[in-house]
Amino acid sequence: DELKHYGYLGVFLISLLLNATVILPVGNFIILFTLGGILPLPIVVGLAGGAGAAIGEITGYLAGYSGHGIVEKSRLYNRMEGWVTKWGAAAIFIFSLFPFAFDLVGIAAGVLRFPFRKFLLFCWLGRTILYIIIALTGAWGWEAILPYLG
After folding, report:
1. Where exactly are the transmembrane stretches of this chain (predicted)?
2. φ and ψ at 25, to 5 degrees?
């Protein structure tokens, strides 16, 4: 119930802060799930969370763009960079639908000088879809969702 007092602005700020961490696996899914269940408009929870997340992900992009070698060129990073090189916006969109490894995609996009506005747009689209699904799951409860998952 304490989370309810923060409202949609709180969702935005929490998502912004938790997605601004680079490489640290910090998720806000439990918060989005909970607020999706207690705030009256779970789709707005997803929209606010997606906007905050996209803005927060700018830190990874800027870290890569600055070229200060924030990440050691590991096999995983090289794979992500290859996908961003080959698939561009599609890779950014698809990886933003998943909570893990997106920091590496953002860093790779910055290193490759992927157009900033396109990065932000496709990151926002993917994160917003993901966060709407999480918020709706919180609103409807797992029992309503599980039959559709197989």
Report:
1. 6-31, 43-67, 87-112, 119-142
2. -80, 80
Q: Spell out the SS3 assignment of 17-35.
A: HHHCCCCCCCCCHHHHHHH
Residue by residue, pLDDT tens for the chain (150 residues) are: 566 788 999 999 999 998 888 766 667 888 899 899 889 899 999 999 999 999 999 999 999 998 765 666 778 778 888 889 899 999 999 999 987 778 889 988 999 999 999 999 999 999 999 999 999 999 988 667 667 766
State the pTM of this model. 0.86
CB 57 within 8 Å of CB 106: yes
- Round to whole Å and give the CA distance between 30 and 67: 33
Q: Domain ranges in the chain?
A: 2-149
